[in-house]
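Ticket 4471: requesting a sanity check on a complex prediction with 5'-O-(acetylsulfamoyl)adenosine. Repro inputs:
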Amino acid sequence: MPEGQSRNDTIEDRLVEDRTFPPPESFRAASLVSSPALYDEANQDWQGFWARQAADLLHWDQDWQTILEWDEPFAKWFVGGKLNVCHNAVDRHVLAGRGDKVAYHWEGEPGDTRTITYADLLADVQRFANVLKGLGVSKGDRVCLYMPMIPELPVAMLACARIGAPHSIVFGGFSPDSLIDRINDAACRVVITADGGYRRGQPLALKPNVDVAVGATPSVEHVVVVKRVNEPVTMVAGRDHWWSDLMAAADAECPCESMDSEDLLFLLYTSGTTAKPKGIMHTTGGYLTQVAFTHKYVFDLHPDTDVYWCAADIGWITGHSYIVYGPLTNGATSVIYEGTPDTPAQDRLWDIAERYGVTILYTAPTAIRTFMKWGAEHPASHDLSKLRLLGSVGEPINPEAWMWYHEHIGGGRCPIVDTWWQTETGAIMISPLPGATITKPGSATFPLPGIEIEVVNEEGQRVERGGGYLTITRPWPSMLRGIYGDPERYQDTYWSSYAGKYFAGDGCKLDDEGYLWLLGRVDDVMNVSGHRLSTAEVESALVDHPAVAEAAVVGAKDDLTGQAVMAFVITRGTHSASPELGAELRGHVATKLGAIARPKVVIFTDELPKTRSGKIMRRLLRDVAEGRDLGDTTTLADPNVVEEIKRRAAESPTED
Ligand code: 7RM
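Returned structure tokens:
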């Protein structure tokens, strides 16, 4: 490989992957989009294209006057238009006679289940909207949701949307400190929580964290508590209320508030590496348009026959957009599962997929690599023949993980949509359309219709081929509207690196055919003797080896080369860690990517530090790698390294 490749300022392109997968003919024939026509339509008039989607997919109480007002970096979409997100997600399906259609097949971790129709959802949401009003919440007031993955969570979100109160969801299980920061930044008036939720077979308490937090959040007037795990909780009279008591006393009907297209729908906090978390703002009309559009076309949704399952957490943007707002707006039937994939056994997901007849599955590479590690016998012991489409989100998917997903979950017949997007983008930006796009394992392929992407070099000039930085060159409907309370930080973080372009913070390369290959966060790019190497390519080369289930690489300070490649590796199946395997893996990377990418050290481990959405926290691994003298020979797993990783991971709040 490109040993003699000249050094450049951008990220190098080393991994070669030339397998291609056209849509299977039977899939293509029945798909919503089987030709490039949609791309042509969007290219001719991108604003008109989004306006058509807004009109086709949503119900508007009042038409907009202007499609887009763009005063960089501030966008307003469908200006003057009025609509209600909850009406679009729930009421209109019931009004159209589809009230008996199942919205959610919900399954708790202990195995309890609930079937929730659109009519059920409408009844609960109206009552809970009245509960919120009764607690003094009105249009514009922020509400914090700190809940497990139970049906009351989407109910609370939709009730907020119904009355125009923006929600701010904080991942269940976050520490009281993270909760305090987020509640105070948004000055939330009400917190909705539960006594706890189930994780790994155990009740995990939530209310005690809220009790600690609200001692330091003067804006909070009321706390609503769902009883989920029957753990004893302390209820403060006048402040704390049981969900069921309030629901029983609430009126059954609550009209939808007609909202301005640009009214705030929700805040979702993402942590920066250093500073305080950013409250990412999403508004109403543009967000719902792009979420509904992408959910329909990327997942080729046939709402009458599909059973759709996004196995993410609702507290992650993926859950907001693709468990709640997208699927409901499109009238889909979805699965929601509360717990962990290995409770009670490592086949839990396949058991669920089989029982509900799941046809579309959307999950993350970290989960897929975990399933690889557990072994193909688990999915093989279930009938997954109803599956027809698979999706991936959250990280670059290594070609080997893509192939495993394709073969062992998709039975070789399901297209895979690798979807790139961010909390900030609100909805999918780069992805195949499964009936139209020839996919390549590990590539998110092309920007969706209506989206324009440019890969640029350090100077902001367009790169036609090879590595660079991912930018978005025109506004899109579901883009963040800013950082809550901090317009300057919004400008600085996203719009100051390259003039006129949104900088996503990700490395990306273009191949000869214009396919996009995401290379990971630019903060993680390694610099070895002046060569800028992406974490994604070195990790993919490692996972390509049959003995490797998962790998994380970081650049650690090195006297000789500036940085040295350090690899943390989890072995697969029966393979076990040994100095010989370490040496073999180092050689394997050198063969695939060139000697410059050869890891200096391979550290075998059982765990990697991850965020709640499954992203590897390379920053912590860098701390570990730089804080110790690891030597330049292959090092067997030192349990202390793992302990150290765990201890540090536990100390720093982990999120996205
Ligand atoms: C949806 C989500 C955003 C970051 C993003 C990337 C990474 C997400 C992919 C991906 C490669 C993908 N929102 N990322 N999807 N990298 N291929 N298909 O993850 O705000 O939590 O994270 O995630 O680095 O910038 S997020």
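Notes from triage: The longest strand covers residues 548-558. Leaving this open until the requester confirms.
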